[in-house]
Amino acid sequence: MSRQSNRTTDNKKMNSELFTLTYGALVTQLCKDYENDEEVNKQLDKMGYNIGVRLIEDFLARSSVGRCQDFRETADVIAKVAFKMYLGVTPSVTNWSPAGDEFSLVLESNPLVDFVELPDNHNVLIYSNLLCGVLRGALEMVQMAVDVRFAQDTLRGDNVTEIRMKFIKRIEENLPAGDE
Amino acid sequence: MADEALFQFLHSELIQYIYKSGANGETENGKNITKLEAMGFRVGQGLIERFTKETPRFKDELDVMKFICKDFWTCLFKKQIDNLRTNHQGIYVLQDNSFRLLSQLSAGKQYLEHAPKYLAFTCGLVRGGLSDLGLKSVVTAEVAGMPACKFQVMIQKA
């Protein structure tokens, strides 16, 4: 009997599971290496940052989106293009602050936590904190300083996952004096 | 649907982290490789479990190896293993002429010594996958010229 005919597994899905499981292995390793969860959160953020500063190039090259006019447009691009492209989900952009400098990305499902349950002794751990680092790192490369943190997390019993992003400032490029 | 680039970046962060947290030196290098391999093993187990849910039973050992070379590899690295050789006594050599996780590295001889880091996780993946299919094995990798590499699988007879 030929096995070929029965092959129904979706390659793309498989590839995303590779990512999800590898990420899980990483978090497990970090939890082993560090004594408290806050250190793990910090480390995840740092690694995310490193990924973000490199991922932005890949993103700009592939998506061919242009410069964003304002923070609202940035939010839309992150949600509709970037998340879609890399994680296959489209978060909704909500909860704008009146000043328009702060918003939330709300994810119905978070691919990173597909197979995850948090044990009781890890209630400070922000499992998906890598994402915050990625966003921070990527935006820094396009001259935007932002503050990113998790406001809600399904792993801790919330209904949705919510990432809160706050615009801090535009990073000025420091050109050497007289070099225009 | 994580894009492949994301996995590659995560993979290199993983290596960075493992190597930074351990000290340098010959013995430490071995330890780091072991750590990476162990992580891969765990991931390989999880993947194969989900992946073979719908597939019919395997005929024999060779059938399993073909499955690893074709389906498993295609899903993970978007291509098949280029060449599979065996002595029919439990040793298999899987050759990939342009291995995904090495393709970002410069192809010259300069970084050849760093190549093992980039293969350890994958060795674990293969060993983990095989272990869940009932084959105990030892998997090692070697690189002669990047980005080509060979994985050697030695099946341990019970």
Low-confidence stretches of chain A: 1-9
Radius of gyration of chain B: 15 Å
Strand order of the largest sheet of chain A: 1-2-4-3
Largest sheet of chain B: 4 strands, antiparallel
List segments of chain B where confidence is low: pLDDT < 50 over at least 5 consecutive residues: none
Molecular shape of chain B: globular
Multimerization status: heterodimer
Share in helix of chain A: 40-55%
Class by alpha and beta content of chain B: alpha+beta
Strand fraction of chain B: 5-15%
**Mean pLDDT of chain B, rounded to whole units?**
88
Distance N to C terminus of chain A: 71 Å
- Quick one: overall form of chain A? globular
Strand order in the sheet with the most strands of chain B: 1-2-4-3
Keywords (chain A): Endoplasmic reticulum, ER-Golgi transport, Golgi apparatus, Lipoprotein, Palmitate, Transport
Protein name (chain A): Trafficking protein particle complex subunit
Pfam families (chain A): TRAPP
Subunit structure (chain A): Homodimer.
Which key phrases capture this entry?
heterodimer; A: 180 residues; alpha+beta; 16% strand; disordered N terminus; B: 158 residues; 4-stranded antiparallel sheet; 4 helices; 4 strands
Question: In words, what does this structure look like?
Answer:
The complex is a heterodimer of chains A (180) and B (158). By secondary structure, chain A is α+β, with helices and mostly antiparallel strands. Chain A contains four helices and four strands, in the order αααββαββ. The radius of gyration of chain A is 18 Å and the shape is globular. In chain A, 36% of the residues are buried. Residues 1-9 of chain A have low confidence and may be disordered. In chain B, helix 1 (4-21) packs antiparallel against helix 2 and helix 2 (26-51) runs parallel beside helix 4. Chain B is of the alpha+beta class. Chain B is built from four helices and four strands, in the order αααββαββ. Chain B has helices at 4-21, 26-51, 61-77, 115-132; strands at 83-86, 91-96, 137-142, 149-155. Chain B starts with a helix and ends with a strand. The interface between A and B is large, with 39 and 35 residues.
